[in-house]
């Protein structure tokens, strides 16, 4: 199940090369696909990759 890894905020920040605060802000605004486990955000790698494709316009081709 390597394509369906669940990532933490710090892992997503490193993956996207942004600050953790940016990840929290985007997730809270529902602009980044994620879900909460208790009070902690988690993200599926496959959903992030789809989000990246959509942001770069690849999803519209």
Main sheet summary: 3 strands, antiparallel
CATH topology: Multidrug-efflux Transporter Regulator, Chain: A, Domain 2
Whole-number tally of structural domains? 1
Distance between the termini: 27 Å
- Helical content band: 40-55%
Biggest sheet: strands side by side, in what order? 1-3-2
Order of helices and strands: EHHEEH
Strand tally is: 3
Helix segment count?
Answer: 3
Named CATH architecture: Orthogonal Bundle
Q: List low-pLDDT spans.
A: none
Structural class: alpha+beta
Q: Kindly state the mean pLDDT as a whole number?
A: 91
Name of the level-1 CATH class: Mainly Alpha
Rg to the nearest angstrom?
A: 11 Å
Bulk shape: globular
* Beta strand %: 15-25%
Structure commentary:
This protein has a single domain (2-60), classed as Orthogonal Bundle (Multidrug-efflux Transporter Regulator, Chain: A, Domain 2). The chain has 61 residues and is α+β, with helices and mostly antiparallel strands. 46% of the residues lie in helices and 16% in strands. It has a three-stranded antiparallel sheet. A hairpin with a 2-residue loop joins strand 2 (35-37) and strand 3. Helix 1 (9-16) crosses helix 2 (20-28). The N and C termini lie far apart (27 Å). The chain has helices at residues 9-16, 20-28, 45-55; strands spanning 6-7, 35-37, 40-44. The protein has three helices and three strands.
